[in-house]
Design brief:
This protein has about 400 residues and is of the alpha+beta class. The chain has seven helices and seven strands, in the order H-H-E-E-H-H-H-H-H-E-E-E-E-E. Strand 1 (about 120) and strand 2 form a beta hairpin. It is elongated and about 130 Å long.
């Protein structure tokens, strides 16, 4: 029943109802509904003053011109017709005064009485419903949140181990290319690389175990959260239904004429009020603040090696140099997605096969040709030679 805000600009998956603490808008909906009641009372109390002032102005106008007309030399049916305007105005004045009284004494008091009964307060904790919902949501979400925290720690540890393994691989490659390094030292570097790889596999296994724990607990978590959410929806349904009835009752006081132009205005208003639909409102809340929101459920995030930036001066120098070109090229397959940042860089998707036409340079880049015929640079560690 709270105002329907604009769709959030943030990533809806991160702001999803299921994420830690994101149930709070549903908890706050109770306070917002209470405030809406205050606003409705204030709004139509002001309208009641307008009606009262209008009734007084009509009465003053009628009294002034009735005395003037009585002294004028008109008579018969013409006089009675003129005087009829004043009697009609007095009746209209009484009607608007009655509307003013009804808006305050009946509708305003009705909303206040319902508001007091519907929103019991809990000492020091605000509204009882908000406190109970917050407590229930927090209790249901706590075990899942703990698992989510453990999962994030496992993810960070896994990604760090991937970085260490990559560093060890790079070091091993440099050692193998160094003919002056002793075999003993090369052996140590190889052992360090194998240890890093073993550590990475352990971290991934732990990461997968944490993810499995989160995934297996998720159905229970969803069931508990939805049960609490549906209780909140039931209370909101009662509020929407009551205020719909209130609006329609107020409308019945204000719709006083059969004049076609005025009727058209009230007909349009009535149509808008009759369009209030608790199911549509609840559906919107569910899809934008509740379980229907899109969410980014945890999944494995593969580590992608960093790209070594080509220095522009060296790249330009490389263009001028005459480098040996592989005749026919060598087929390679992309290991990761890559989007070229410069005009002379290739862009490709993981799994795409293309040709390598020049070996890796001292900056870690190769030259290749895509199936489309485009030629350019790409990171050497983003593709591997395909088996014949």
């Amino acid at each position: 029943m709270a105002n329907l805000p604009k769709d959030p600009a943030e990533d809806p998956k991160k702001e999803s109802f299921w994420m830690p603490g994101k149930y709070v808008p549903t908890v706050h909906r109770t306070e917002q509904s209470f405030q809406a009641c205050n606003d409705i009372v204030a709004c139509f109390t002001e309208r009641a003053k307008v009606e009262k002032q209008y009734a007084q102005q009509l009465s003053q106008w009628s009294s002034k011109w009735k005395s003037i007309v009585d002294s004028r030399p008109l008579y018969g049916s013409l006089m009675r017709a003129w005087q009829c305007f004043f009697s009609s105005t007095e009746r209209l004045s009484e009607l608007h005064a009655s509307i003013s009284q009804s808006l305050v004494a009946e509708e305003g008091q009705r909303v206040k009485t319902w508001q007091k009964a519907t929103f019991p307060k809990k000492i020091f904790c605000g509204f009882k419903e908000s406190h109970e919902n917050n407590t229930s949501f927090s209790r249901a979400q706590k075990p899942w949140s703990k698992r989510l925290i453990k999962l994030e720690k496992a993810r960070v540890a896994y990604h760090k181990s991937c970085q260490r393994e990559q560093a060890a691989l790079d070091k091993e490659k440099q050692a193998n290319d160094n003919s002056e390094m002793s075999p003993e030292k090369k052996q140590k570097i190889t052992e360090a690389k194998e240890k890093a790889t073993e550590e990475k596999e352990k971290m991934r296994e732990r990461y997968e175990k944490m993810l499995e724990d989160v995934t297996s607990y998720t159905p229970r978590y969803m069931e508990e959260m939805e049960a609490i959410f549906e209780q909140s929806q039931e209370e909101e349904t009662k509020r929407i239904t009551f205020l719909k009835e209130t609006f329609l009752s107020i409308h019945s006081h204000l719709d006083i004429t059969n004049n076609e132009s005025v009727k058209a205005v009230y007909s349009e208003l009535h149509h808008t009020l009759m369009s209030i639909n608790d199911q549509d409102d609840l559906k919107w809340w569910k899809n934008n603040r509740g379980p229907g929101m899109p969410t980014d459920w945890p999944k494995i995030q593969e580590w992608v090696p960093p790209v070594k930036k080509l220095k522009r001066r060296k790249r330009d120098q490389r263009r001028k140099e005459t480098r040996p070109v592989m005749i026919g090229g060598v087929k390679v397959r992309a290991l990761y997605d890559y989007a070229g940042e410069e005009g002379d860089e290739l862009s490709f998707k993981a799994g795409e096969v293309f040709l390598k036409v020049e070996e890796e340079d001292d900056q870690g880049w190769c030259r290749g040709v895509l199936s489309s015929g485009k030629e350019g640079f790409y990171p050497a560690n983003y593709a591997e030679v395909t088996p014949e």
